[in-house]
Specification:
Elements (H helix, E strand, L loop, with lengths): L1 E5 H8 L10 E2 L7 E2 L23 H4 L29 E9 L10 E10 L4 E11 L2 E5 L5 E5 L2 E12 L4 E13 L5 E2 L2 E2 L3 E16 L4 E14 L17 E11 L4 E12 L24 H7 L8 H6 L2 E10 L3 E9 L9 E10 L2 E10 L11 E8 L13
Parallel strand pairs: 1-7
Antiparallel strand pairs: 2-3, 4-5, 4-21, 5-6, 6-9, 7-8, 9-10, 10-13, 11-12, 13-14, 14-15, 15-16, 16-17, 17-18, 18-19, 19-20, 20-21
Length: 407
């Protein structure tokens, strides 16, 4: 399916420009209190480029409300927390996921595919790798007069490699390196300026802690922390004076799993996420008067450390930037699983709210998972009714790993 779109509008939408909050006004002037024209708090959402990096690729965690920082390890662990992989009882695994995207907008040719796998080469160490491919379909670009100026198939991809290892009896850590390629309209021209493919590198740092609990049944408590997408700023033109930040993110999660008996197991999890990028300035302060808001010119480290205190709405707005996910998973006899969860984002920061449902089937070393995003409220969302499909293959138990903390 071909989509006709004005080139400038396409780049504006895909690169998630932050100029969408210009309707907010400060009242009273100088108070730092920014309001919509109707008097409600300013809807000042945070936007970044290459946001496909934040799309949850697999059906298991997406069925649990996108909770995955501290859940048990599998072949998809790299997206949330690669440190979990070193705690795996298996010696390896491969997973393939497919996500039709933005079906709520009636688009049928946008999707994400994700291939990931890991291998434990000792009882304390593991390597893992993944390829994430995001296709935006086929577009015919037009100019402001509506004349066709070209066509293309915009796409983005990420290649990642991680090293995970045990740091103690119950603690694990990981480092992940990434190569990111974003081709939105390469070969086209915008106001006489050539548009090119944006490329950069990035890294994730993560830790995972898991300990048995003294209860009447076998149970474990796990905590996961990950700082992801730390990398260089990118631009789609050589002539641009502005380069945009990647969606750097701090995630903290906890999970509690209980084996009631040899057939029944349940896991409950909670994830908290916050983007480590500048909060948009509704007033578009431009101290050097170069036509670019100051918050868009911040370097990586000032952006990260300043992201906890730079919101014009103060501490309450900083709290509003926290995204919450809660979910649960029930397994029967390690063969059949049902999942449910809820994801919440403050209305001022995007208003992404949805319930999720998921199913899992496992037969020997093969597994099939699917999830469904349940729309909430009366407002239609582009993510309504999103499905995810994941096929897993486990290589088997890691025979030399008899760590009792992994039970």
């Amino acid at each position: 399916m071909k989509n006709y779109i004005h080139l400038l509008s396409f780049l504006f939408f895909i690169s998630y420009s932050n100029y969408s909050n210009a309707q907010c006004v400060e009242s009273p002037l100088g108070s730092g209190n920014w309001l919509e024209p109707d008097g409600s708090p300013c809807r000042n959402s945070i936007s970044t480029v290459v946001s496909f990096l934040r799309i949850v690729p697999d059906a298991r965690t997406s069925g649990m409300g996108s909770v995955g920082l501290a859940t048990s390890a599998d072949a998809n662990a790299m997206h949330f927390n690669a440190a979990k992989i070193a705690s795996s009882k298996g010696d390896g695994g491969i997973s393939v996921s497919y996500v039709p995207w933005l079906k709520g907008l009636g688009l049928n040719d946008i999707y994400m595919a994700y291939l990931s796998g890991y291998y434990k080469f000792s009882k304390k160490e593991a390597i893992s790798a993944s390829i994430r491919y995001f296709s935006l379909g086929e577009f015919t670009f037009t100019n402001t007069q509506g004349d066709v100026i070209g066509s293309g198939k915009p796409n983005e991809f990420e290649i990642a490699v991680a090293y995970s290892r045990s740091l103690g009896d119950k603690l694990y850590g990981a480092l992940t390196g990434k190569f990111i390629n974003s081709n939105l309209a390469s070969g086209q021209q915008l106001n006489g300026v050539d548009i090119e493919t944006a490329r950069t590198g990035a890294a994730d740092i993560s830790v995972f802690y898991r300990t048995p609990l003294k209860t009447n049944t076998k149970s474990n408590l796990a905590i996961g922390v990950a700082v992801s997408n730390l990398g260089g700023k990118i631009s789609y033109t050589k002539a641009s004076t502005v380069r945009d930040l990647l969606p750097a993110n701090l995630g903290i999660g906890a999970a509690w799993d209980v084996d009631f008996d040899q057939y029944n197991r349940i896991t409950l999890g909670l994830d908290v996420n916050k983007l480590l990028v500048p909060s948009p300035d509704p007033g578009y302060t431009d101290a050097d008067q170069n036509g670019v808001p100051d918050y868009r010119e911040k370097a990586l480290l000032p952006s990260i450390f300043g992201s906890f205190s730079d919101a014009k709405g103060g501490f309450s707005e900083e709290l509003a930037e926290i995204q919450l996910g809660i979910g649960g998973e029930y397994w029967y006899n390690d063969q059949f699983a049902i999942r449910a969860g809820y994801q919440y984002e403050n209305p001022r920061k995007g208003n992404l709210k949805y319930f999720t449902l998921g199913l899992g089937l496992k037969y020997t070393t093969f597994g099939l998972n699917l999830s469904y995003l349940v729309p909430t409220g009366n407002t239609r969302s582009a993510l309504d009714n999103t499905l995810r499909f994941t096929l897993n293959f486990d290589f088997g138990a890691f025979e030399v790993d008899e760590d009792p903390n992994l039970n």
